[in-house]
Design goal:
The complex is a heterodimer of chains A (182) and B (93).
Chain A lengths: L25 E5 L3 E7 L4 H10 L4 E6 L2 E6 L4 H9 L4 E5 L4 E7 L3 H6 L16 E6 L2 E9 L2 E7 L3 H12 L5 E4 L2
Parallel strand pairs in A: 1-10
Antiparallel strand pairs in A: 1-6, 2-4, 2-5, 3-4, 6-9, 7-8, 8-9
Chain B lengths: L3 E4 L3 E4 L4 E5 L11 H8 L8 E7 L7 E7 L5 E6 H10 L1
Antiparallel strand pairs in B: 1-2, 3-4, 4-5, 5-6
Chain lengths: 182, 93
């Protein structure tokens, strides 16, 4: 039997062995997320940002000035591509195969992430819905707060293994479990 | 992580996220400038003590070039501006 590499997740080798029931602190890996990078043309920054934030089924993530990631877990790549290409003054590239999406949640999530990033994650500073590009476990990642105790981490595919291992190491004290989301 | 740089786009970040790209004060001569001007620009650099302007590249964040004004003796940071904005402000004058 041949393995179809297209449908093999990069963290498949890291998440093997016993399936455990998720603890309160849990790291879930989303198997096939849709991630697009969006770049605004000069002068179109505010219009593109507004369109992105109003778009349905797509969560925008801030990377830098006039640069965002559009993330979706519910709709397919074609739908997102169609929706994003309708935005005037924006260039859109599908990054789904080049990025890995992880979600870390639980009561100790700030303590765990505090060892991985050098950014203040207090809810008054890093509010819900806030996202930024930062160094996470020595790799460039995009970290977003999606809930009070939930963070989403997007890392380049080739860094996913090392970031995943380090996150698990940092969360061991808090009983961090891991698994694929679906 | 001692040196904190407040990026205008990303907020306060440690120096590990940045790559220092050298002094920002010397102005690049025009391509047709005399060899002496280019020689001065490339090789004859001051080595000031105190307040300096430097290019910092926010590699792990917004990937923008920033101009950081800081004291290389006390490590005090006085201001951080996006290099493009600074360029634009200079062109307007």
């Amino acid at each position: 039997m041949s393995i179809n590499l297209l449908h093999r997740h990069v963290l498949e080798d890291h998440i093997s062995g016993f399936e455990t029931d998720p603890n309160p602190n849990h790291l879930s890996v989303i198997r096939r997320p849709v991630i697009f990078s969006v770049l605004a043309h000069a002068g179109q920054e505010t219009a593109v940002a507004e369109a992105l934030w109003n778009a349905e089924d797509v969560a925008p993530r801030f990377c830098g000035p006039s640069e965002w990631l559009a993330v979706s877990r519910t709709v397919g790549a074609e739908t997102v591509a169609g929706m994003l290409s309708a935005i005037a003054g924006a260039s859109v590239v599908d990054q789904s195969d080049g990025r890995a999406l992880m979600e870390i949640s639980g009561p100790s999530v700030r303590k765990i992430l505090g060892r991985c990033v050098a950014v203040d994650l207090h809810p008054e500073v890093f509010e819900q819905g806030h996202s930024a590009a930062m160094l996470c476990c020595h790799a460039t990642a995009n970290v977003a707060r999606t809930g009070a105790d939930t963070f989403e981490i997007i890392v380049p595919r080739s860094f996913a293994g090392s970031v995943f291992e380090e996150l698990m190491e940092m969360g061991r004290e808090h009983g961090l479990t891991r698994g694929f989301a679906d | 992580m001692a040196s904190l740089i407040t990026c205008p786009h990303c907020g306060t970040r440690p120096k590990e996220e940045f790559s220092i790209r050298g002094a920002a004060a010397p102005k690049r001569p025009s391509p047709t400038a005399k060899d002496e001007a280019w020689h001065r620009y490339v090789y004859v650099r001051d080595n000031p003590k105190g307040r300096i302007l430097e290019y910092w590249h926010h590699v792990a964040g917004c990937r923008r070039f920033l101009v950081v004004e800081r004291d290389n003796l006390t490590h005090e940071v006085f201001g951080v501006t996006d290099a493009a904005e600074l360029e634009r402000a200079g062109a307007d004058e």
